[in-house]
From TrEMBL:
Residues 400-491 form the Thiamine pyrophosphate enzyme TPP-binding domain. The lineage of its organism: Bacteria, Pseudomonadati, Spirochaetota, Spirochaetia, Spirochaetales. This is Indolepyruvate oxidoreductase subunit IorA. One of its GO terms (biological process) is small molecule metabolic process. SUPFAM superfamilies: Thiamin diphosphate-binding fold (THDP-binding). Its cofactor is [4Fe-4S] cluster. Binds 2 [4Fe-4S] clusters. In this family the first cluster has a non-standard and varying [4Fe-4S] binding motif CX(2)CX(2)CX(4-5)CP. Gene3D superfamilies: 3.40.50.970.
Length: 557
């Protein structure tokens, strides 16, 4: 066995490589991005060469998962990476993929972000696994991220279903030493024999759905004996039973010594859950004699809610639903400590937060000199001229997900809505059709490719009187400067091809010195009572720095 110090994301990526990965696809999204970055760094560029694998970014999570399904159909192992909200985008192939006869192992690595460090919501991907009726593995440390990823491929091939690997921010972005095992051979090309398992025509889909339900019994048996679903019952105090999952297990253990002391030396009975479907038999064994059970889980109350359908008798259940454990945000040892009714550690407030001297708030901001800042200054000036009344009642500026979302904070304060990838375009259309005179969507280049094109087609067909502003900085900046799928030079022919009139497709250079000139051109398009697209172009400063560094180092990364 070799040892390496890796981030949780990198450990999952290496686990996939060592499991015999042939291809990996994904869309960048914090905290999942480093899984694919590690794979791309180590890929040999082709799934066809012996011993090689391919790794690439895709336009969005849905296309990534669909490509991975194609790899699995051909009999090879594939991984897909995304953040939790990306699974919403990929949910169509994800839910339907559960009904297929998966051939080569298919693992979907999804990184959740409890606490919303860089996300628009706190959703828990374990709900999706349960919804699709596919197994989920939930590592609690970097070593498990490695070993569970390897195992996920075997499980996928054994039960012929996709397997979800649930990561979380703290695990994804923390580094630890892991032990690795020898790399396995990649699957040979051997496409799925039974085509009816891959065609979800109603007659086949009905049969495949029954087959998926029949697989649940085997999955339950697998999860009950899975080593990460560890039941500690013998000699334990049953006046309190504790169920933990994911990092909640680590935080519980950090408090265990104090908990045992506070209970006169008695150690509560415990079940840690790392593999789903929920090990129902173990839960019943734990709870049948216990007086009370407390559930400590990272994310939403997935286990706690399901307990009510599993338990055959009445028992007090404490956790996120009754507020014993904080319902929102990330868990940490202090939050868990409060849930266990232990006194706060010295220097820690009752809320579980550390008391620090008051520091000035520092909300995230666009980099000084960012091209988006100049674009927003122009938009702001034009709106002030067109719709000067307070609150701009005749204007709706819908922004999207990316660095440019930071234009919502001072000193710009321009966007009025930020919802999900691509929503700015559809919302601008809706606002226009609701009667808003100056309906505007603001979207970045990569987000436009991700999910901005279909709603633009809707608006073109409806000839909606709105203006779409594309902020083209030639890179996916927010997640660390991944390459945009197609270059800026192709945007104009692409948009013209969709049907925008050439006289209402305007390109501007996002520069402060051009503010007056750009404002005149932008104003004309916003006033135009039809559909117009304005592209503000200038390279992201971070991307520029990275590119210059690579050039001066002779093109090396
Ligand atoms: S990383 Fe690039 S796009 Fe993002 S704020 Fe900085 S300069 Fe602007």
């Amino acid at each position: 066995m070799k040892e390496q110090a890796l981030l949780g994301d990198e450990a999952a990526a290496l686990g996939a490589i060592h499991a015999g990965l042939s291809a990996a696809y994904g869309y960048p999204g914090t905290p999942s991005t480093e899984i694919m970055e590690y794979l791309i760094e180590n890929a040999q560029g082709s799934a066809l060469a012996p011993g090689a694998f391919l790794a690439s970014w895709c336009v969005n999570e849905k296309t990534a998962l669909e490509a991975a399904l194609g790899v699995s159909f051909a009999g090879k192992r594939a991984m897909v990476t995304m953040k939790h909200v990306g699974l919403n985008v990929a949910s169509d192939p994800f839910m339907n993929g559960a009904l297929l006869g998966i051939k080569g192992g298919l693992v979907i690595a999804v990184a959740d972000d409890p606490g919303m460090h860089s996300s628009q919501n706190e959703q828990d991907s374990r709900f999706y696994a349960s919804f699709a009726m596919v197994p989920c593995l939930e590592p609690r440390n970097q070593q498990e991220a490695y070993t569970m990823t390897r195992e996920a491929f075997d499980l996928s091939e054994k039960f012929q279903v996709p397997v979800l690997l649930r990561m979380t921010t703290r695990l994804s972005h923390a580094r630890a030493q892991i032990k690795t095992e020898p790399e396995r051979a990649r699957n040979p090309l051997s496409k799925a024999g039974d085509k009816t398992q891959w065609m979800l025509l109603p007659a086949y889909a009905r049969r495949n759905y029954i087959s998926l339900i029949e697989k649940q019994r085997g999955l339950l048996e697998w999860s009950v004996v899975h080593p990460s679903n560890k039941l500690e019952l013998e000699g334990r105090d049953l006046s309190l039973a504790v169920i933990t999952s994911g990092l909640g297990g680590n935080y519980y253990e950090e408090n265990l010594e104090d908990l045992v002391k506070s209970r006169g030396g008695k150690t509560p009975a415990r079940l840690h859950i790392g593999a789903y479907p929920l090990p129902e038999a173990s839960i019943l064994r734990l709870c049948e004699k216990a007086d009370r059970v407390i559930v400590i889980e990272e994310g939403q109350p997935v286990i706690e809610e399901r307990l009510r359908g599993i338990l055959t008798h009445s028992i007090t259940v404490n956790g996120k639903l009754d507020g014993t454990v904080s319902r929102t945000g990330e868990l940490d040892p202090d939050v868990v400590r409060l849930g266990l009714a232990l006194p706060p550690r010295p220097g820690v407030l009752n809320s579980g937060t550390v008391s620090l001297p008051k520091l000035p708030g520092r909300p995230p901001q666009l980099c000084t000199g960012c091209p988006h800042g100049d674009s927003y200054e122009t938009i702001k000036k034009v709106i002030q001229e067109l719709d000067p009344a307070e609150g701009h009642p005749n204007t709706a500026i819908n922004s999207d997900i990316g660095c440019y979302a930071l234009g919502a904070t001072p000193p710009y304060s321009v966007p009025e809505s930020i919802v999900c990838m691509g929503a700015s375009v559809g919302m601008a259309r809706g606002a226009a059709e609701a009667g808003i005179k100056y309906a505007i969507g603001v979207i970045g280049d990569s987000t436009f490719l991700h999910s901005g094109i279909p709603p633009l087609i809707d608006a073109i067909i409806a000839d909606t009187p709105m203006t779409l502003i594309i902020l083209d900085n030639s890179i996916v900046a927010m997640t660390g400067c991944q390459q945009t799928m197609i270059g800026s030079d192709k945007f104009t022919p692409l948009i013209l091809g969709l049907g925008i009139k050439s006289e209402h497709l305007v390109e501007l250079e996002a520069k402060r010195q051009l503010l007056e000139e750009n404002a005149v051109k932008l104003k004309k398009e916003i006033e135009y009572p039809g559909l117009s697209v304005v592209i503000f172009k200038r390279e992201c400063l971070e991307a520029f720095r990275k590119r210059r560094k690579a050039e001066t180092q002779g093109g090396s990364k």
